[in-house]
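Quarterly update, task 2.4: zinc ion-bound model.
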Amino acid sequence: MTDPANRATATRNAWLATIERHRHDRDVPGSKQYWSPRLDTASRDEIASIQNDKIAAVAPFLYENSAFYRRRFDRLGLVPDDLRTVEDLIGKWPVVDKLEMAEDAAAQPPYGTYTAMSDALWAERGWMMFSSSGTTGAPRVFRYSHFDRELWAWANARALHAMDFRSGDTVFMITGYGPHVWAWGVQYALAKMGLPTLPGGGMDAKARANIVIRYQPTILLCTPSYALHLCRTLQTLGVDPRTTAVRTLFVAGEPGMSIAATRTRIQELWDARLVEFYGCTEASPHVGGFSCPHSQPESGPVTTHLLEDVQVWETVDPQNRDAQQDGERGLTVCTNLNSESSPQLRFLVGDYTTLDRSRCPCGRTHVRAIGSFSGRADDLINLRGVKMFPGQIEHAVRSIAGIGDEFEILLTTNADGLDLMTVRVEHQAGETVATTVIEEIRSRCEIRAHVEVLDPGTLPRTEFKAARVKDRREKR
Ligand SMILES: [Zn+2]
């Protein structure tokens, strides 16, 4: 096996066979409660053994099929055989970040070499190309194959089953069907599960509200911002969202479950349950995080499940990127063991969370994110050394009765060179509530913000992902 092309093919075949060996309950759920009882409730030892088996096969595969990974192995003085277990991986392999990928994409346009997709494979079984929605660096794209599509539908079906999506549900897909992984992955999983969908791209909120009224979908797929926007649209049409057939709001794309005030507001306005997906384009095709019936306990933080037989999840220290123990709050890192196109090793997804590997009351044994995910490290606002997420401001603002759904965070530099934060909100009562807003923000974010209270309906309405932060500070 000295010919590089032969090695590439042989390691690919071995990798795909390893994935297949650990794929159970492919097409129909194995039980009422779990799509794959065998995997979803596997013992911690079984999970570790599957992960190690996959790592031992993916390392040579990446070495032979991705120039980016080969360069990294060589630079680190490692050979594929050095990575055979999760322990090897975490101990020997530094995290891969978006910047490193973006540099590779810039040097090897237009696709970069950080995936194992080749032009020949794309011609043979290419399925769809996605691009990362991140704002860092050059565009990074990811071409996935039909084999990935099938793995994706299966992994997502396990998650959607956990979220209690069942026969009788109709899902209204409120998405523009752009090159973003979430809605596409869900679309194919729903087809596998036999659940009908209403595609909702290319129409305005009023048209979508009329679909909710007329065709009575039971589940809405949308961003948290859009769940609020559509609710207000229904109200202006004289319809109380609580009287519609919608029983589940299935959100992603922005922090949703993790912001208590937003979660409560959406659930109360719709009288429906909020569930979420969490993930990233780089380490698809699979769900990443998902809710279960116990994700919102009576007391204590919300939790989000992850699938450990198809991914390795860990957190690292935000400063030095050293591996952390479970229970320590850090940035998410994912090793993707469920793809022939993009099986990334220790990719820095970069959201803050805390991991817990104890068994969930739902019976699933895989790791959970405690408090869900509070936002990407890229989104962190640093104002005069005080660090906060837009979600913390969101929670403060939405804790106030009567405050509108929209708000803006404006960062500016004044004539003295001092950076300031102005938060714009909407409220009937005008400036009289400004002090309350200032106090809420100060108590939750330890910062004194200026607050402007505008008339309801003044701020632009969010149609998809909210762009809350406008950073107009002078760069120094
Ligand atoms: Zn659970």
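Highlight for this quarter: The first helix runs from residue 4 to 21.
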